[in-house]
Amino acid sequence: MEPLLQAEHITICYNGKPVVKDVSFNVDAGEILGVVGESGSGKSTIIKAVMGLLGGGGMVTEGDIWYKGRNVVDMPSEELRKILGPEIGMVFQDCKAALCPIRTVGAQIYESISEHERVTKKQVYERAGEVMQKIGLTDPQRIMDSYPFELSGGMNQRVGICAAMMMKPALLLADEPTSALDVTVQAQVIREMKLMRETYGTAMILVTHNIGVVKAMADRVLVLQNGEMRDYGPTDCVLNHPENAYTKKLMDSVLHLRRNA
């Protein structure tokens, strides 16, 4: 079977300067790919390219990104918008910044769902409530009626995760989805995202600095440094038995606490 998503030797430039250079990887249906590396290594840039969200000056200058046999690099924006949400979901690193500050959370979630489905506001609120409770938001009605600035950073992050999960996309792109959450909520979110994979066969690209999250979730790992591939393979091999010098340094930098007797 062909991969759900396939990146072939992609180079991404901003204003002519390459920030991702000759990177290739596959994501199979139901697979979780972890993307790790230091800040500025190009992790977030790659998933923004999949979404067509590189912004002004950003462009895939070489290579192709195939989703279900269609090249998203050359896809017209109208066609790409039809698959963003129902087929490819996105959890942003700062979900609060991605939300409109002068509209309620419920209004924004309803708008995003109704763009692709015929649903009532009541149906959307009920669906959102079910997902929110699974990831630790116990008062979904209040949250749906709130503005983003009335919620904490962690709550806004879980709202973003909820909105991305509600349409059960085939591929979920998650940019540091647990970075604003405390460890207890991180565990809840990880469990729910893994359950989403098990229930709906959702594949994921997980960008994170948290090696523990990668170990808990990812089937394969892509290691980047300065926009270039340093390692790529099964999670156990890459993280526990690294052969690349940079990957070894990255793993050695992970903090391990010891308790003296």
UniProtKB/TrEMBL annotation:
One of its GO terms (cellular component) is plasma membrane. One of its GO terms (molecular function) is ATP binding. Pfam families: ABC_tran (PF00005). It comes from the Bacteria. Keywords: ATP-binding, Cell membrane, Membrane, Nucleotide-binding, Transport. Residues 5-251 form the ABC transporter domain. It is found in: Cell membrane. InterPro entries: AAA+_ATPase (IPR003593), ABC_Ni/Peptide_Import (IPR050388), ABC_transporter-like_ATP-bd (IPR003439), P-loop_NTPase (IPR027417). It is a peripheral membrane protein. Its main location: membrane. PROSITE patterns: ABC_TRANSPORTER_2. Coiled coil: none annotated. Belongs to the ABC transporter superfamily. This is ABC transporter, ATP-binding protein.
